Amino acid sequence: QEYRTGTLKGVVAKYFNNSYLGVVSSLIEEESLSVDELRKLIEQVEQGNKKIAMGFFFVYILKSTTYILLFYLFYKLLLSRETFFRFNRLALLGISAFSFILPFFKLSKALPAQQSTLFSLPVDITEMGSEPGQQAAASILFYVLPGIYLAGLFFFFFRTILSFIRLYRLFRQEGIWMEKEGVKIGIVETCMSPFSWMNRIVISRKEWEENQEAILIHEKGHIQARHSWDLVWMQICGIVTLV
Questions:
Q1: Is the CB of residue 101 less than 8 Å from the CB of residue 117?
Q2: Alpha carbons 22 and 28: distance in angstroms, whole number
Q3: DSSP per-residue codes, 37-65
Q4: Which tens digits make up the pLDDT trace of 177-236?
Q5: Could you tell me the pTM of the whole model?
Q6: Residue 187 forms beta bridges with which residues?
Q7: How far apart, in whole angstroms, are the C-alpha atoms of residue 36 and residue 32?
Q8: ∠54-95-75 over CA atoms, to 5°?
Protein backbone atom coordinates (compact mmCIF):
# COMPACT_ATOMS: atom_id res chain seq x y z
CA GLN A 1 0.00 0.00 0.00
CA GLU A 2 2.79 2.46 0.91
CA TYR A 3 4.77 1.52 -2.22
CA ARG A 4 1.73 1.97 -4.47
CA THR A 5 0.88 5.33 -2.88
CA GLY A 6 4.47 6.53 -3.20
CA THR A 7 4.68 5.42 -6.84
CA LEU A 8 1.40 7.16 -7.71
CA LYS A 9 2.52 10.39 -6.06
CA GLY A 10 5.79 10.21 -7.96
CA VAL A 11 4.02 9.80 -11.31
CA VAL A 12 1.62 12.65 -10.60
CA ALA A 13 4.45 14.93 -9.50
CA LYS A 14 6.67 14.07 -12.50
CA TYR A 15 4.18 14.06 -15.39
CA PHE A 16 1.21 16.12 -14.19
CA ASN A 17 2.85 18.89 -12.14
CA ASN A 18 1.42 17.50 -8.89
CA SER A 19 -2.15 17.99 -10.15
CA TYR A 20 -4.62 15.14 -9.71
CA LEU A 21 -7.10 17.20 -11.70
CA GLY A 22 -4.64 17.02 -14.58
CA VAL A 23 -4.58 13.22 -14.26
CA VAL A 24 -8.38 13.01 -14.48
CA SER A 25 -8.50 15.50 -17.38
CA SER A 26 -5.90 13.48 -19.26
CA LEU A 27 -7.84 10.26 -18.72
CA ILE A 28 -11.03 11.92 -19.98
CA GLU A 29 -9.30 13.33 -23.08
CA GLU A 30 -7.89 9.91 -23.92
CA GLU A 31 -11.33 8.37 -23.28
CA SER A 32 -9.81 6.05 -20.70
CA LEU A 33 -12.36 7.31 -18.15
CA SER A 34 -16.04 7.07 -19.07
CA VAL A 35 -18.78 9.41 -17.87
CA ASP A 36 -20.22 6.73 -15.59
CA GLU A 37 -16.82 6.08 -14.06
CA LEU A 38 -16.35 9.82 -13.53
CA ARG A 39 -19.73 10.02 -11.79
CA LYS A 40 -18.76 7.13 -9.52
CA LEU A 41 -15.48 8.87 -8.77
CA ILE A 42 -17.33 12.08 -7.83
CA GLU A 43 -19.70 10.09 -5.61
CA GLN A 44 -16.75 8.45 -3.84
CA VAL A 45 -15.15 11.86 -3.23
CA GLU A 46 -18.41 13.30 -1.87
CA GLN A 47 -18.95 10.31 0.42
CA GLY A 48 -15.37 10.58 1.64
CA ASN A 49 -15.83 14.29 2.41
CA LYS A 50 -19.02 13.56 4.35
CA LYS A 51 -17.25 10.92 6.42
CA ILE A 52 -14.35 13.25 7.13
CA ALA A 53 -16.71 16.06 8.17
CA MET A 54 -18.69 13.70 10.40
CA GLY A 55 -15.54 12.36 12.01
CA PHE A 56 -14.13 15.81 12.75
CA PHE A 57 -17.48 17.04 14.09
CA PHE A 58 -17.76 14.10 16.46
CA VAL A 59 -14.18 14.54 17.67
CA TYR A 60 -14.89 18.26 18.18
CA ILE A 61 -17.93 17.46 20.36
CA LEU A 62 -15.91 14.86 22.27
CA LYS A 63 -13.17 17.38 22.98
CA SER A 64 -15.67 20.09 24.01
CA THR A 65 -17.36 17.70 26.43
CA THR A 66 -13.99 16.70 27.90
CA TYR A 67 -12.98 20.31 28.42
CA ILE A 68 -16.29 21.23 30.04
CA LEU A 69 -16.02 18.32 32.47
CA LEU A 70 -12.41 19.14 33.35
CA PHE A 71 -13.05 22.86 33.80
CA TYR A 72 -16.23 22.25 35.78
CA LEU A 73 -14.39 19.83 38.06
CA PHE A 74 -11.77 22.53 38.60
CA TYR A 75 -14.56 25.03 39.36
CA LYS A 76 -16.26 22.72 41.88
CA LEU A 77 -13.02 22.03 43.71
CA LEU A 78 -11.70 25.60 43.90
CA LEU A 79 -14.47 28.13 43.28
CA SER A 80 -17.90 26.71 44.07
CA ARG A 81 -17.71 27.64 47.77
CA GLU A 82 -16.64 31.20 47.10
CA THR A 83 -19.19 33.93 47.81
CA PHE A 84 -18.16 36.14 44.88
CA PHE A 85 -21.29 35.27 42.93
CA ARG A 86 -20.65 37.64 40.03
CA PHE A 87 -17.17 36.20 39.54
CA ASN A 88 -18.55 32.64 39.78
CA ARG A 89 -21.15 33.47 37.15
CA LEU A 90 -18.53 34.85 34.78
CA ALA A 91 -16.34 31.81 35.48
CA LEU A 92 -19.10 29.36 34.54
CA LEU A 93 -20.02 31.27 31.39
CA GLY A 94 -16.35 31.55 30.46
CA ILE A 95 -15.78 27.84 31.05
CA SER A 96 -18.65 26.88 28.75
CA ALA A 97 -17.67 29.33 25.99
CA PHE A 98 -13.96 28.48 26.21
CA SER A 99 -14.75 24.75 25.98
CA PHE A 100 -16.33 25.31 22.56
CA ILE A 101 -13.41 27.44 21.31
CA LEU A 102 -10.47 25.41 22.64
CA PRO A 103 -10.96 22.34 20.35
CA PHE A 104 -10.15 24.51 17.33
CA PHE A 105 -6.56 24.87 18.58
CA LYS A 106 -4.10 22.03 18.01
CA LEU A 107 -2.76 21.52 21.50
CA SER A 108 -0.82 18.42 20.53
CA LYS A 109 1.96 20.58 19.08
CA ALA A 110 2.55 22.17 22.45
CA LEU A 111 2.52 18.91 24.40
CA PRO A 112 5.09 16.13 24.78
CA ALA A 113 4.80 13.32 22.27
CA GLN A 114 3.53 10.83 24.85
CA GLN A 115 0.61 13.13 25.71
CA SER A 116 -0.40 14.16 22.21
CA THR A 117 -2.64 11.13 21.68
CA LEU A 118 -5.20 12.65 24.04
CA PHE A 119 -5.98 15.28 21.42
CA SER A 120 -5.59 13.20 18.24
CA LEU A 121 -7.96 10.97 16.34
CA PRO A 122 -7.93 7.22 17.03
CA VAL A 123 -7.39 6.70 13.30
CA ASP A 124 -6.41 8.93 10.42
CA ILE A 125 -9.81 9.59 8.88
CA THR A 126 -8.28 11.00 5.73
CA GLU A 127 -6.39 7.80 4.93
CA MET A 128 -8.63 4.90 5.82
CA GLY A 129 -7.18 1.73 4.41
CA SER A 130 -8.75 -1.62 3.72
CA GLU A 131 -7.28 -3.41 6.72
CA PRO A 132 -9.90 -5.02 9.01
CA GLY A 133 -8.70 -3.03 12.02
CA GLN A 134 -9.04 0.29 10.19
CA GLN A 135 -12.46 -0.68 8.81
CA ALA A 136 -13.69 -1.52 12.32
CA ALA A 137 -12.34 1.76 13.69
CA ALA A 138 -13.95 3.65 10.80
CA SER A 139 -17.32 1.96 11.42
CA ILE A 140 -17.21 2.92 15.09
CA LEU A 141 -16.09 6.49 14.36
CA PHE A 142 -18.51 7.18 11.49
CA TYR A 143 -21.63 5.24 12.49
CA VAL A 144 -21.80 3.80 16.02
CA LEU A 145 -20.53 6.75 18.08
CA PRO A 146 -22.40 9.42 16.08
CA GLY A 147 -25.56 7.31 16.41
CA ILE A 148 -25.16 7.18 20.18
CA TYR A 149 -24.47 10.92 20.25
CA LEU A 150 -27.54 11.76 18.16
CA ALA A 151 -29.73 9.58 20.37
CA GLY A 152 -28.47 11.41 23.46
CA LEU A 153 -28.86 14.78 21.76
CA PHE A 154 -32.51 14.13 20.89
CA PHE A 155 -33.18 12.84 24.41
CA PHE A 156 -31.80 15.98 26.09
CA PHE A 157 -33.41 18.22 23.46
CA PHE A 158 -36.91 16.80 23.96
CA ARG A 159 -36.46 16.81 27.75
CA THR A 160 -35.64 20.52 27.55
CA ILE A 161 -38.61 21.16 25.28
CA LEU A 162 -40.92 19.41 27.79
CA SER A 163 -39.55 21.64 30.56
CA PHE A 164 -40.34 24.75 28.52
CA ILE A 165 -43.83 23.41 27.75
CA ARG A 166 -44.49 22.97 31.47
CA LEU A 167 -43.29 26.53 32.08
CA TYR A 168 -45.53 27.83 29.29
CA ARG A 169 -48.58 26.05 30.72
CA LEU A 170 -47.82 27.45 34.17
CA PHE A 171 -47.48 30.97 32.81
CA ARG A 172 -50.77 30.62 30.93
CA GLN A 173 -52.76 29.76 34.03
CA GLU A 174 -55.33 32.39 34.96
CA GLY A 175 -56.15 33.69 38.41
CA ILE A 176 -52.70 33.11 39.94
CA TRP A 177 -50.84 36.14 38.59
CA MET A 178 -50.42 39.62 39.97
CA GLU A 179 -48.05 42.43 39.05
CA LYS A 180 -45.85 44.22 41.55
CA GLU A 181 -43.16 46.77 40.69
CA GLY A 182 -43.07 45.66 37.05
CA VAL A 183 -42.67 41.97 37.90
CA LYS A 184 -45.36 39.35 37.40
CA ILE A 185 -45.79 37.12 40.45
CA GLY A 186 -47.57 33.78 40.29
CA ILE A 187 -48.87 32.29 43.54
CA VAL A 188 -49.49 28.55 43.27
CA GLU A 189 -51.10 26.14 45.71
CA THR A 190 -48.49 23.47 45.03
CA CYS A 191 -45.68 23.22 47.57
CA MET A 192 -42.60 24.09 45.51
CA SER A 193 -39.41 26.10 45.77
CA PRO A 194 -39.76 29.67 44.48
CA PHE A 195 -38.07 30.48 41.20
CA SER A 196 -37.91 33.25 38.62
CA TRP A 197 -37.94 33.14 34.83
CA MET A 198 -37.40 36.25 32.75
CA ASN A 199 -39.71 38.82 34.40
CA ARG A 200 -41.86 36.32 36.30
CA ILE A 201 -41.61 34.91 39.80
CA VAL A 202 -43.40 31.72 40.86
CA ILE A 203 -43.91 31.14 44.57
CA SER A 204 -46.08 28.81 46.65
CA ARG A 205 -48.87 30.32 48.73
CA LYS A 206 -47.23 29.06 51.92
CA GLU A 207 -43.95 30.83 51.09
CA TRP A 208 -45.87 33.94 50.02
CA GLU A 209 -47.66 34.18 53.35
CA GLU A 210 -44.61 33.42 55.49
CA ASN A 211 -41.59 34.99 53.80
CA GLN A 212 -42.60 36.94 50.71
CA GLU A 213 -40.40 40.01 51.12
CA ALA A 214 -37.11 38.14 51.42
CA ILE A 215 -38.00 35.82 48.53
CA LEU A 216 -39.07 38.69 46.27
CA ILE A 217 -35.83 40.57 46.92
CA HIS A 218 -33.82 37.45 46.13
CA GLU A 219 -35.72 36.55 42.95
CA LYS A 220 -35.75 40.14 41.69
CA GLY A 221 -31.97 40.04 41.94
CA HIS A 222 -31.98 37.08 39.53
CA ILE A 223 -34.30 38.96 37.16
CA GLN A 224 -32.18 42.12 37.17
CA ALA A 225 -29.02 40.10 36.52
CA ARG A 226 -30.79 38.28 33.62
CA HIS A 227 -29.88 34.87 35.00
CA SER A 228 -32.60 33.28 32.87
CA TRP A 229 -30.42 33.78 29.80
CA ASP A 230 -27.57 32.08 31.62
CA LEU A 231 -29.82 29.06 32.09
CA VAL A 232 -30.79 29.09 28.41
CA TRP A 233 -27.11 29.10 27.40
CA MET A 234 -26.24 26.31 29.83
CA GLN A 235 -29.18 24.25 28.55
CA ILE A 236 -27.85 24.61 25.00
CA CYS A 237 -24.39 23.56 26.17
CA GLY A 238 -25.90 20.58 27.97
CA ILE A 239 -27.80 19.48 24.87
CA VAL A 240 -24.80 19.77 22.54
CA THR A 241 -22.27 18.12 24.86
CA LEU A 242 -24.71 15.74 26.62
CA VAL A 243 -23.42 16.95 30.00
A1: no
A2: 10
A3: HHHHHHHHHHHHHHHHHHHHHHHHHHHHH
A4: 998 888 999 999 888 889 999 999 999 998 998 888 899 999 999 999 899 999 999 899
A5: 0.61
A6: 203
A7: 12
A8: 125
